[in-house]
C-alpha cells in the first residue's frame, strides 16, 4: 500500500530535471535563443529587450517547466578566451545546443573549429546535439553550405548520438518551439543512459 501511495505522490509532485548547454561563438545569438525560449515557454516571463542583448561574458542561466520536465539552460560565453571553460560543464549536461550565425560567412571557419573541438570531447560521447542555424531572418548562407562546412552528415553517421538540425530566427522566435520540443523528447528518451535529477515541488 505504501509503495502505491508513494508512486502516486511521485507522479503528482516529482519532476525530471535536465541540464542543457547552449554553445557557439559570441554574437551567434545564443542568449537571444535562450530569451525567446523563456518567453515562449513561461507565460509570465517578460524577458529582456531582444534588440539590446550584448555578448555573454561568463554564463547566463534559464529555466523552463514543460509538462513535468524542467530544463535548465547554461548559455556560455563564446569568445575564444572563454571557450576553454566549456568542458567544465560537459559531464553534467544532458544535451547540447550549438548555435551558428548563418549570416556571418567570415567566422564560419572559426565556429567550425570550436564545434569540432567540442564534439571530439569524450565527456560528450553520446550526448544529444541540436545544431541551430540562426539568423535566418537576414541574408544568410544556404543551409546546405553550413551542413557541408561542418561535415554534419559525417558526424551524424559516425557518432552514436541523437542529432537534429534546425533553421531558426531567434530574434523573431521562428524555430524555437521545434527546437525545445526536440530537446524535451530526446532527453527523456536518453534518460536511461543519463538519468535526470529528480526534484519535488
Task: Describe the protein.
This protein has 201 residues and is α/β, with parallel strands linked by helices. It has 6 helices and 7 strands. Helix 3 (108-119) links the parallel strand 4 and strand 5. Mg(2+) binds at residues 31, 56. InterPro entries: P-loop_NTPase, Small_GTP-bd, Small_GTPase_ARF, Small_GTPase_ARF/SAR. It comes from Dermatophagoides pteronyssinus.
Looking at the overall shape, the CATH architecture is: 3-Layer(aba) Sandwich
Roughly how many Å apart are the termini?
A: 23 Å
Oligomer: single chain
Number of helices: 6
User: What is the top-level CATH class?
Assistant: Alpha Beta
Reconstruct the topology from this structure.
Blueprint: H1 2-13, E1 14-23, H2 30-41, E2 59-66, E3 69-76, E4 95-101, H3 108-119, E5 129-134, H4 143-149, H5 152-158, E6 163-167, H6 176-189, E7 197-200
Parallel strand pairs: 1-3, 1-4, 4-5, 5-6
Antiparallel strand pairs: 1-7, 2-3
